[in-house]
Amino acid sequence: MKKLFMTFAVLAALLCSCTRSQAPSADPAAIPHLEKRGPATQLIVDGKPWMILGCELTNSAASSVEYMSSRWAALKESGVNTVLATVSWEQVEPAEGEFDFSVVDGIITDARKSGLKLVLLWMATWKNGISSYQPMWVKKDAERFPLALTKEGGRLPILSAFGEQTCAADAKAFAALMGHLREFDGRDHTVIMVQLENEVGLHGHTRDYGPLAEAAFRSPVPQSLSSSGGNWEEAFGKGDRTDEMFMAWHYASYIGKVAAAGKAEYPLPMFVNAWIVQPEDRHPGNYPSGGPQAQNHAIYRIAAPDIDILSPDIYLPDFPDVLEMYCTEGNPIFVPESNAGQRGAANAAYLFGEKLGFGYSPFGFDRNAMGGDNETFRELYSCLASCQDEVLAAQADGRIRAAWVSGEDSQSVVRNLVMDDVTVRVELVSSGWRNGGAPQLTGGAYDPKAIGYAIVIRQEEGFLVLGSNCRVTFAPSDGQGTLGLAKVTEGSFEKGKWHEGRWLNGDEIQLSYALLASVAEGQSGQGLNFGTPHPGFIKVQLYKY
């Protein structure tokens, strides 16, 4: 009987070995990955670029398959194609070394049935800088898993980045998750990317003052950061910035080890997200000190090479300015948390068109996916889904630009996009009326709450524009001559193919009768009118005279 049991055990092991060796993930090209295509870095899924028209669920939504069961249909109907969902350490490893992936499997299965992709958010040691997603066996053992300390010795509800056993336990659990994903989803590629932790950094203080942290602070700075051989204060001086760099190095090193353990099992693209510096913040600790904020990117690149993307969570109104800080050193552009609504639509259009990003995601979208205040956001996602091949090809060819225009200040109402020999002028829709009662199309007053956008793609026969709340005009970039509109057509994309609608002329394209002033600027007085928040497509051919 014992021999028979051993035979079955050996046979089972062999079958398991064969199954794993045949997993499609053995071919690195089959796994979702990032790829440089022209000036853009794109996410490749099943051999094709994938545009993440995403949303992030509220933090606890994905902890229950039953809770999510009534929400998948609305998310799909909203135009979302990718859902960002939390996986918590405490739920998958309730007892040390014992893993339960049943909820994860249920979420993946239901997303797959709904035709949606997933980005999983590994909430483990830190979430928004605080520690609450770790299992009970970690929470109850501060000796083995130390907490960060204040300067006065007070314990913070934050696991220390210097806890080696904490890092090892987190990495072990994450590796188990990634190995399970390889086996459970390696053929279907429902899960296309993973986030490590969430908005890490130390709250309230510039650095950790625990004994392990103090010893590290007095030790020589890693040579990859400084060749001085001195400790952190000797190398960089005394002050908040030195404390922040110190914490950034150790947070990044910790997360880098977790990422490396996961990638050894299943190398999906991995990213970290940043709680960005707010206007009222005065020093590190007002925002989580040592997180992947823009000023710490170089440190994260050195300390955590297995992290592919440093992503900002942007809720501030100056979306373009904040995003610009993360468009450095080849950092791929993905925003995992931001706004929905009309502002979110403008943000997403700017990210895809101007910054060649591959994904945008408003937070908590499951609470109001089909609400009226998200109507124009859903419409933008629908438009982008219909023409995503056109957008992605234009990104790779460098034929795409975008403008984000807002009435909040006078510097944001107009944007000029230089596209080779043509300057495309995008202006926010004006409020008010012209003399005689006709709508005022350009100039004058602007609604401070209004926000608009335009994505402009150069095509062989002219330009394709996707716009909302704006007017678009054209002029020669060299200032010589005038550009007129030869042919203007509304239209839409059906199964990726352009379907021509009305031919526009007359009142529909005449934006100004001040012809002398227009000609002086190289324009004809005609342009494209996207006069409402509802986005639409217009194609235009130009001629010069």
Topology (elements, then pairings):
Layout: H1 2-21, E1 33-37, E2 40-45, E3 48-50, E4 52-56, H2 65-69, H3 72-77, E5 82-88, H4 89-92, H5 102-113, E6 117-127, H6 136-139, E7 147-149, E8 155-159, H7 164-185, E9 191-198, H8 211-217, H9 232-236, H10 240-265, E10 270-275, H11 297-303, E11 309-313, H12 319-324, E12 334-338, H13 341-353, E13 359-362, H14 375-386, H15 388-397, E14 400-406, E15 414-419, E16 422-428, E17 451-459, E18 462-468, E19 470-476, E20 483-494, E21 497-503, H16 515-520, E22 528-530, E23 536-544
Parallel strand pairs: 4-5, 4-13, 5-6, 6-9, 9-10, 10-11, 12-13
Antiparallel strand pairs: 1-2, 2-3, 7-8, 14-17, 15-16, 16-19, 17-18, 18-23, 19-22, 20-21, 20-23
Helix pairs in contact: 7-10, 10-11, 13-14
Q: What can you see in these coordinates?
A:
Helix content is 30%, strand content 27%. The strands form 5 sheets. The protein has an 8-stranded parallel β-sheet. Helix 10 packs across helix 11 and helix 13 (341-353) runs parallel beside helix 14. With 545 residues, it is α/β, with parallel strands linked by helices. It contains 16 helices and 23 strands. The protein folds into 2 domains: 50-386, TIM Barrel, CATH 3.20.20.80; 403-544, putative beta-Galactosidase from caulobacter crescentus (Chondroitinase Ac, Chain A, domain 3, Sandwich), CATH 2.60.220.20. Strand 7 (147-149) and strand 8 (155-159) form a beta hairpin.
